[in-house]
């Protein structure tokens, strides 16, 4: 029994790391621009399809598609921010960005159904034998995609946190997030920062898509569930705290995995939201969030 | 006096008018108003969209075949016109759309909607509006247990029959091989269909003296079913029953193989495991030796007439995949509507309703295609459909193994599974 729980714990950490990676971009976007991007799940779906196309057509190993999906999503993020979101954002820079929220909702529906029209409703998976290979350690079994998910999600998160903390651009991004006016007085171009953070957010999501595809089949609506999860993770981990999103993901993953062993699976799902509500009630800025980070 | 020459202009004119009138009348008869069929089917929303798409293609093919053969003869050759709506797998959408189909599009008959969770509430709207509804494949028992007068289910029986077949097969396999299963894990998607199946499975396994070591519903389209599979592994069941739609069935079977859950058999409930994408997505190694019920016995037993062959050939040519129970049932349901329209003689909901209630299609090419007679009883249900059990072979074929009278003569089932399948 305890080996089952240990397996559940480790599997939960592995899937939680990927949830965290998915939520990372969302956290960055919200922390810097204070916008809620409901199309986040749809961009994940897009990343998975790009990875699928590269793996299927160019025969790339699923992991090797990650740099390409990151680049494609980075470009898409830049374009969306520069030419779509920015126009709406500017018009309401004094108030809460409700317009962007509504726009992102429309974008979500548009992207989902565009892909439905383009590629059809069928599920697709990546065909490589690597995705089914397992590493067996005594009683514990891990698939290589799980291990890859844990390793690369952790690496990317660490890299992003280091980038934000130690590089000039990173500090500029955090400054803009803290106080946009003060930052622009200091000569930081907030428009450029927004474009960069949105693009980085989606680039990270691109890697997550490549890591997720061997684990889960893609269809035009796969983003819906993960998008919802990402929101829970971001708010749980702390709005604006990128590292917090990662740990929030781990917590959700572990709760889901270990919880399911002890209570029915459906209740374990509910448990995640109970935790979410509890954190909202007792610590509204999230577990690791700082009020004005 | 040349009477003819004096009269011929008028006579010529009169005959011209008569001829024109006759042509016009003939033209009108051939251009009889199309009969609209309101059709709800999931084409988006991930759970069932790939199945919905397959079924929709089969439905369209039936419409084409019926119209090519002259439409509804008793209504002057009126063609059928499908008014297709995407239910998105969402009951709320379906309810709104049914209202619209009945009141705005004025469809005198409705068809659909594959998923029990959608069909159950949507048919209630049809009943309230006195418009007949032909259920294509939804299996929830209560759909025909409400005392409704306008809901008919010719090509599907309640889920209980499917579940009974699963449990009865497990008992049979144990007896005939001398290696009985003592424990079972029941895993199912937790909406209407899955819950209905689970209720029957529970009762039937208990009656057969097989211990249920795990009884767990899960939300369809869960991001991660690994915890559930881990739970299954921990309980060490002899048999695992998997009642899932397409995406989850793929995930579950892959996980069962990856996590090396050794069992005597995995038994599916039609739906996910017979979806045309199942074997391509899990791969032949993982699909090998999986059992699944199937409401259709397959090519060997059913494609035996030119009628059936035309369906098979045209479906494969247009869609590049083979038909399965889902597409066959969708195809057949349209022919049932055609049969009722012929007897009703007019596109009137009440007349169509009365005709559907008296449906008796026996021994025809259609029956040979689906494998059972179609006789509607007082509840609007056709009780004559049976579920067979099939096993997937190493080269990706579905071979019928039970009941004995339908079982393939050339294939011997593998029970228990050779070893835990290696992914």
Give a quick rundown of the structure.
Chain A has 293 residues and is mainly alpha-helical. Chain A has eleven helices and two strands.
List the topology elements.
The complex is a heterodimer of chains A (293) and B (423).
Chain A: H1 2-33, H2 40-57, H3 65-91, H4 98-119, E1 134-137, E2 140-143, H5 144-166, H6 168-178, H7 180-185, H8 190-212, H9 222-237, H10 242-262, H11 265-282
Antiparallel strand pairs in A: 1-2
Helix pairs in contact in A: 1-5, 1-8, 1-9, 1-10, 2-3, 2-4, 2-8, 2-9, 3-8, 5-6, 5-8, 6-8, 9-10, 9-11, 10-11
Chain B: H1 3-30, E1 35-41, H2 49-68, E2 80-86, H3 91-103, E3 109-112, H4 116-128, E4 133-135, E5 151-152, H5 159-177, E6 183-189, H6 192-207, E7 211-218, H7 226-235, E8 239-243, H8 246-258, E9 265-268, H9 278-282, H10 284-287, E10 291-294, H11 299-302, H12 306-319, H13 325-344, H14 349-357, E11 360-361, H15 365-370, E12 374-375, E13 388-392, E14 398-402
Parallel strand pairs in B: 1-2, 1-3, 3-4, 4-5, 6-7, 6-8, 8-9, 9-10
Antiparallel strand pairs in B: 10-13, 11-12, 13-14
Helix pairs in contact in B: 2-12, 2-13, 3-4, 5-6, 13-14
Describe this structure in words.
The complex is a heterodimer of chains A (293) and B (423). With 293 residues, chain A is mostly helical. Chain A has one domain. Chain A is 74% helix and 3% strand. A two-stranded antiparallel sheet of chain A has the order 1-2. The longest helix of chain A is centred in the first third of the chain and has 32 residues. Helix content of chain B is 46%, strand content 15%. In chain B, strands 7-6-8-9-10-13-14 form a seven-stranded mixed beta sheet, sandwiched between helices. A five-stranded parallel beta sheet of chain B has the order 2-1-3-4-5, with helices on both faces. In chain B, helix 2 crosses helix 12 and helix 3 packs parallel to helix 4. The interface between A and B is large, with 45 and 38 residues.
């Amino acid at each position: 029994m305890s080996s089952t729980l240990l397996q559940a714990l480790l599997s939960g950490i592995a899937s939680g790391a990927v949830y965290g990676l998915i939520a990372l971009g969302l956290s960055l976007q919200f922390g810097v621009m204070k916008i809620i991007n409901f199309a986040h799940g749809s961009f994940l779906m897009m990343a998975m399809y790009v990875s699928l196309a590269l793996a299927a057509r160019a025969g790339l190993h699923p992991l090797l598609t990650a740099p390409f999906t990151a680049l494609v999503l980075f470009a898409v993020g830049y374009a969306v921010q520069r030419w779509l979101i920015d126009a709406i954002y500017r018009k309401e820079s004094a108030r809460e960005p409700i317009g962007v929220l509504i726009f992102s909702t429309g974008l979500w529906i548009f992207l989902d159904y565009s892909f439905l029209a383009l590629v059809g409703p069928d599920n697709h998976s990546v065909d490589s034998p690597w995705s089914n290979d397992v590493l067996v350690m005594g009683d514990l079994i891990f698939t290589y995609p799980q291990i890859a998910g844990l390793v690369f999600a952790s690496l990317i998160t660490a890299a992003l946190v280091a980038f934000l903390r130690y590089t000039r651009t990173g500090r500029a991004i955090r400054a803009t997030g803290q106080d946009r006016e003060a930052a622009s007085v200091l000569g930081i171009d907030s428009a450029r920062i927004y474009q960069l953070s949105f693009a980085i957010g989606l680039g990270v999501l691109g890697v997550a898509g490549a890591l997720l595809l061997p684990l889960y089949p893609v269809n035009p609506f796969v983003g819906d569930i993960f998008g919802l999860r990402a929101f829970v993770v971001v708010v749980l981990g702390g709005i604006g705290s990128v590292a917090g999103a990662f740990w929030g993901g781990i917590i959700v993953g572990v709760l889901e995995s270990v919880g399911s062993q002890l209570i029915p699976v459906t209740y374990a799902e509910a448990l995640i939201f109970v935790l979410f509500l509890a954190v909202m009630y007792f610590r509204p800025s999230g577990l690791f969030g700082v009020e004005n980070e | 006096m040349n009477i003819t020459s004096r009269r011929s202009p008028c006579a010529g004119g009169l005959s011209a008018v008569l001829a024109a009138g006759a042509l016009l009348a003939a033209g009108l008869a051939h251009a009889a108003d199309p009969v609209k069929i309101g059709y709800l089917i999931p084409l988006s929303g991930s759970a069932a969209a790939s199945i919905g798409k397959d079924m929709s293609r089969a439905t369209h093919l039936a419409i084409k075949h019926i119209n090519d053969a002259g439409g509804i003869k008793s209504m002057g050759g009126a063609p059928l016109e499908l008014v297709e709506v995407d239910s998105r797998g969402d009951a709320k959408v379906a309810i709104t759309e049914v209202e619209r189909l009945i009141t705005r599009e004025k469809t005198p008959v409705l068809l659909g909607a594959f998923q029990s969770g959608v069909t159950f509430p949507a048919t209630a709207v049809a009943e309230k509006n006195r418009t007949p509804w032909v259920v294509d494949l939804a299996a929830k028992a209560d759909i025909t247990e409400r005392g409704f007068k306008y809901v008919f289910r010719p090509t599907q029986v309640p889920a209980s029959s499917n579940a009974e077949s699963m449990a009865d097969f497990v008992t049979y396999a144990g007896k005939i091989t001398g290696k009985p299963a003592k424990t079972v894990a029941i895993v199912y998607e937790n909406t209407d269909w899955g819950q209905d199946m689970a209720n029957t499975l529970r009762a039937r396994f208990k009656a057969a003296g097989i211990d249920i070591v795990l009884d767990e519903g899960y939300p369809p389209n869960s991001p991660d079913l690994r915890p559930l599979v881990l739970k299954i592994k921990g309980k060490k069941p002899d048999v695992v029953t998997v009642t899932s739609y397409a995406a989850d069935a793929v995930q579950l079977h892959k996980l069962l193989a990856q996590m090396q859950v050794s069992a005597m058999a995995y038994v599916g409930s039609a739906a996910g495991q017979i979806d045309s994408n199942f074997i391509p997505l899990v791969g032949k190694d993982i699909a090998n030796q999986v059992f699944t019920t199937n409401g259709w016995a397959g090519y060997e037993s059913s494609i035996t007439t030119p009628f059936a062959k035309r369906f098979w050939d045209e479906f494969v040519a247009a869609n590049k995949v083979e038909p399965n129970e889902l597409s066959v049932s969708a195809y057949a349901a349209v022919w049932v509507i055609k049969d009722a329209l012929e007897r009703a003689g007019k596109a009137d909901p009440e007349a169509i309703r009365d005709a559907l209630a008296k449906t008796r299609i026996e021994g025809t090419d259609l029956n040979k295609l689906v494998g059972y007679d179609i006789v509607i009883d007082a509840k609007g249900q056709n009780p004559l459909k049976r579920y067979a059990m099939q096993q997937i072979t190493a080269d990706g074929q579905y071979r019928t193994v039970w009941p004995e009278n339908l079982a393939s003569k050339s294939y011997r089932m593998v029970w228990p599974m050779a070893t835990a399948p290696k992914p």
